Amino acid sequence: MPSVIIATADDLALSLEEQVTRTSAALDAHGHIVALAPAEPADPARRRLHTVRAALEADRMAIVPMSLPPLARTLLGEQLRQLSGTDLGPGVLAGAARLLAYYLHAGALLGSVARLDRVPVSVADHVKSLVPGKHFAVLAHPAPHLGPAEADAVPPGPGYQTQLAVAGRALDTGWITGPLAAVWRTQHLREVPLPADSARWWGTGKLVEFTAYIADVGMLYQLVTSVRRDTCTWCGLEVIGDQCLFCDTRLGTRTTPAKHAAAAPDGRPAARASVEPPARPQLEPHKR
Fold first, then answer.
1. Where is this region: Disordered (predicted)?
2. Exposed/middle/buried for 56, CB within 10 Å: 0-12, 13-18, 19+?
């Protein structure tokens, strides 16, 4: 049985009493919990997770805020569940959440951007939302993009092999399964349920959400194990990144090189090893 269980905000949409009971049972059964939460401090799901953690005084529960759309956050939880069956410890898995998020390309096909506040929206695009039948292609991660859903206007995608998850049927998915999948060189199309908070996150119920992700657990394991690990000086967990996400202890300045060079998803070795995936931004400090 894995020594850590992965949870998302969707998994924990219960009454407070029931959530505390289930979380306590999960900690007893698995030892540690890594919970993926929305990035907004005032988000009800994130606040609930902190309430549960405080009620249980659970220093074996890491709450990892992620600024990802709902579908991407769900798929990241799925990736971490796959990795929880390997020899990776809870501290490494918690840090892997932020590491693997860099390899997700997440967006949506929207029927309106009038209430979208996740990416910059121009006045002209707001006006276009009033035109019946107008569809917008929006990327929220890893870089914001908003444009028309047209065959010759596909936004840049991943430069490595991915699968494409598609959720929702409120709009015609032809642009996603056709031009987008072709340009992004998708290996496999996968239809999944639309997360419950997708409409709120994207500002409209007229949407189809999509995310390109690495499905190969061997590649995920390679990415995680190719970065440097340290031991938390407070709780003793092995971790990656600049902070233990269970006890919030900051790690000291590193002066020695990592043992292994990180490898990019296309198999090419990176020029150096670090606590981040190659050619990606520095991991942001964890905030509770």
1. 258-288
2. middle
**Residue 8 burial (CB count, 10 A):** 24
Q: Provide the β-strand partners of residue 137.
A: 109, 147
What sign for the dihedral angle of Cα 68, 25, 220, 194? negative
Q: In terms of Cα–Cα distance, which of 62, 59, 64 is closest to 234?
A: 59
What is the pairing mode between strands 32-38 and 61-66?
A: parallel
Domains in the chain: ranges and CATH: 4-103+217-239 (3.40.50), 105-213 (3.30.1180)
Residue 158: pLDDT above 90? yes
* Strand-strand pairing, 145-148 and 136-141: antiparallel
User: What is the average pLDDT across 207-218?
Assistant: 97
What pTM does this model have? 0.83
